[in-house]
Amino acid sequence: MRHAALVATVSLALGTGACQMAETPEQMQARMDQESTAFTQILSGTATRWESWYAAGQADSVANIFMEQGREMPPNLATLVGRDAIRANLAQYFAMGAWTLDVMPEASMANGPLGIDRGRFKVTFTPATNAPPEAAMVPPVDSGKYMIHWHQVNGTWMVADLIYNSDLPMPMPEPARRR
Hints:
It is a single chain. This protein is α+β, with helices and mostly antiparallel strands. The protein has helices spanning 2-19, 25-56, 59-63, 83-96, and strands at 66-73, 80-81, 97-111, 114-127, 141-153, 156-166. Helices cover 39% and strands 35% of the residues. It has a 6-stranded mixed beta sheet, covered by helices on one side. The radius of gyration is 23 Å and the shape is elongated. The model is unreliable at 6-10 (pLDDT under 50).
């Protein structure tokens, strides 16, 4: 008898799933539009916090918005994998001086727990009086573009992947000296 009840329960569960209607393309678009609107509103507040964390030199706060194994792909550096690597890299930058970051989102889209955010940034840098020599290589003003791949984890949007690059031209190598 138990076996028959188990078979009936499993059959009912499987049958119920098979009877559900698939989402139409129009329904999917309406759902994604609604999710994207909510996602965009959340990103607006996140961009403001990100800017304040940069101004305050808070490497921990910036790193904590990344997933545990999140990836940051900065220009001219190897990919940073994980919060610890991202935090350490930011701490080095913040130790060089003061930073001002302006984030200008251009487009965002969400579909369930996944989101994409694309935009522009502007960053200004003022070296500290005791800045290390590599601070001299940092441009005082830079601007560029970014793309962020977000995942919703336990109801919180977190960065899975961040890639950005500068609009500044590559520095030209010094001309070879004649012997």
